[in-house]
Structures are given as structure tokens and as C-alpha cells.
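Fold this sequence, please.
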Amino acid sequence: MTQDIADDAAAIDEIVERLTERFPALPATTIREVVVGEYEGLDGAHVRDFVAVLVEKQAKKRLKTLGA
């Protein structure tokens, strides 16, 4: 369980880093909030293999609507 939390935290950090580079006009805190929100939406997923990919895709969509 602890390893899963560490893996999720590392995945969130990596996604935030990539999206911060892609959307430099947005504050990193905003990007992190969006990514964490998307991650929480998939928290109950039984198959975790593609959660990070889905989170990043949905976060990009949300950040584009913020005018970035």
C-alpha cells in the first residue's frame, strides 16, 4: 500500500513537470491542483496500469480550457 502511494506521488510529480513545461503561462500550483483532481477521480480504478496516462490526457484538456 505504501509503495502504491509513493508510485502515485511520483507519477503526479512527473505529470506536473511535463504539463508545467507545456503550459508555462499557468502557475504550477494550478497545474498540480488539476492533476491531483484528475487522479482523485480515478482513485477507485481496479486496473491501475494506465491511470497516469488517463490523468495526463484529462488534465491537458482542462488546462487548455483555462486559456493556456
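The chain has three helices and no strands. The mean pLDDT is 89.
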